[in-house]
Amino acid sequence: MNLQISEPLQRWRLLLGESAEAALSGHGGGLDAAAAGADAALEWLYGRDPGRAERGERKAGLDGSQLTTPDWINSLHKLFPKEVIERLEQDAVERFGIDEVVTNLEVLERLEPSESLLRAVLHTKHLMNPDVLFAARRLVAEVVRRIMEKLQSEVKQAFNGTRDRRRRSNMRIARNFDFKRTLSENLHRWHPEKKNLYLEKPVFISRTRCQVERWDIILLIDQSGSMVDSVIHSAVMAACLWNLPGMNTRLVAFDTSIVDLTADVTDPVELLMKVQLGGGTNIAKAVAYAQQLVSNPSKSIVVLVSDFYEGGSSTELVRRVKTMVENGVKFLGLAALDESATPVYDREMASRLVNVGAMVGAMTPGQLAAWLAEKVRG
User: Fold this and answer.
1) Would the pLDDT of 336 be above 80?
2) pTM above 0.85, yes or no
3) Mind telling me which PANTHER family this protein's record contains (predicted)?
4) DSSP classification of residue 94
5) Same domain, 169 and 308
6) How far is Cα 219 from Cα 283, in angstroms, rounded to an integer?
7) N or C end of the chain, less CB within 10 A?
8) Are residues 355 and 307 in the same domain?
9) Residue 372 in 3-state DSSP?
10) First-to-last C-alpha distance (Å) of the chain
11) Same domain? 305 vs 190
């Protein structure tokens, strides 16, 4: 969600910079938390202009910046609308010559792969020349590999099936080992002098199958700038689900238009490089597209990943979700898919969706996998 500044004095404070703090704060012009973040982002860039200090517009301080370049890029996409972000990024590259805004090949190759850097790459890949884009793709691949390594184990664990202690299994693998029953059935082999228990018959238990019929899972991903964490984890999650037997996974990204990325779901790197972050939001249009994909409502799950701030018709959105739920579709709205992000979403819209039968909440990718497995098992 973009920053909204309604107080005139706060606007003046952001324009004039830290030098105006003392004069305006006593008149209600002090900055709230969101405005303070915007001020830090503006100071990171325009504080480099010595002419501004001479004009009294902003104070050119000597304190070290607390923002790294990727942090600055990511903060822009949380705080400002698309047209402002484009102007700030343009000024960074053209006016101040900050080539390391994830567009400098030498800098990019030195950076340690991280999710923070991945977010910055996704925000600025449109500024990169082919050589830099190639290096960025390698960086994205390494971060995705790390995320996928973790998520894949969580997804497999969730979908491997529940342990059924009533039935034994001939599959002697560690995850099926029944410690308590093995101990009980081998107690007669306890050697009191050596204080050793000798196992003659290890016991293994069976597992129930997670699904017997094919399920359709449709992931609808809001690709507005503030949802970048959710886009990343959704792309990797879709790739993990794709490999599961009995699952038909589709991935759809949207803003005011719809892009079906299912063809790239097996390659999350390629998928992420095609995502276009930013723009408006028309959730109702995305849900309408999902309706067209549903062929067996009772075996379909739609997962909407969004902040629920609807730029289109909220009435149409609620109506379509209600229709899908009444037809038997399981509908889940996720406010975030990030491991650590605090959910920020339109609670009124979320409440309206819950009232027509949707389930709305915030889950980590691992929790989402467990939820999907639970619904598939019935």
Assistant:
1) no
2) no
3) OUTER MEMBRANE LOLAB LIPOPROTEIN INSERTION APPARATUS, OUTER-MEMBRANE LIPOPROTEIN LOLB
4) I
5) no
6) 13
7) C
8) yes
9) helix
10) 36
11) no
